[in-house]
């Protein structure tokens, strides 16, 4: 499971410097690429690769202040079907899980900053709440199981319906 991810700053196009940009791409794109490349010799046939993306890649204009982060996760979304096609003959499935606003440390600075922020975020989902780590973990668990053996190359919306 390629779950590493970082948002390095929230300054949009004008305020994102080369160091922040490079750090996000190093962690969000380069690391999963080379982890998979390095691990392929050890991954058994019929194995699973799960990339953790973001729902923002389908609606990038929602948060222009983190455009570089969204771009980096978009690159990961493109890696998913390419790997699915390449590794399919070995029975290896490759999928992306794309969370929305999840109550994690990465989102703490804005999500936990005020009751108003939490309420506004919860309203984005028809389910009326903010996602929890277990919501995404359960999807990853399914994709890692044999029950998902016929699912590959997919982008799985894990936003609680926020993109509807």
Automatic annotation (TrEMBL):
Record PANTHER family: NADPH-DEPENDENT ALDEHYDE REDUCTASE-LIKE PROTEIN, CHLOROPLASTIC-RELATED, RE15974P
InterPro entries: NAD(P)-bd_dom_sf, Sc_DH/Rdtase_CS, SDR_fam
Record's keyword annotation contains Oxidoreductase: yes
UniProt similarity note: Belongs to the short-chain dehydrogenases/reductases (SDR) family.
Name of the protein in its database record: SDR family oxidoreductase
GO MF term (any one): oxidoreductase activity, acting on CH-OH group of donors
Keyword rRNA-binding: no
PROSITE patterns: ADH_SHORT
Keywords assigned: Oxidoreductase
């Amino acid at each position: 499971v390629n779950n590493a991810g970082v948002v390095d700053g929230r300054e949009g196009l004008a305020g994102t410097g080369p160091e922040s940009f490079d750090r996000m791409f190093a962690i969000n794109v380069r690391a999963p690429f080379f982890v998979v490349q390095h691990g392929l010799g050890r991954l058994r046939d019929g194995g699973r690769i799960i990339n953790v993306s973001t729902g923002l890649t389908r609606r990038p204009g929602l948060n222009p202040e983190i455009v570089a982060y969204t771009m980096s996760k978009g690159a990961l979304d493109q890696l998913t079907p390419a790997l699915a096609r390449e590794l399919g003959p070995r029975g290896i499935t490759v999928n992306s899980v794309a969370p929305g606003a999840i109550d994690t440390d990465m989102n703490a600075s804005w999500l936990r900053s005020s009751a108003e922020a939490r309420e506004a975020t919860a309203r984005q989902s028809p389910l009326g709440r903010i996602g929890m780590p277990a919501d995404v973990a359960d999807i990853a668990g399914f994709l890692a199981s044999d029950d998902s053996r016929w699912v590959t190359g997919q982008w799985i919306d894990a936003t609680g319906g926020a993109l509807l």
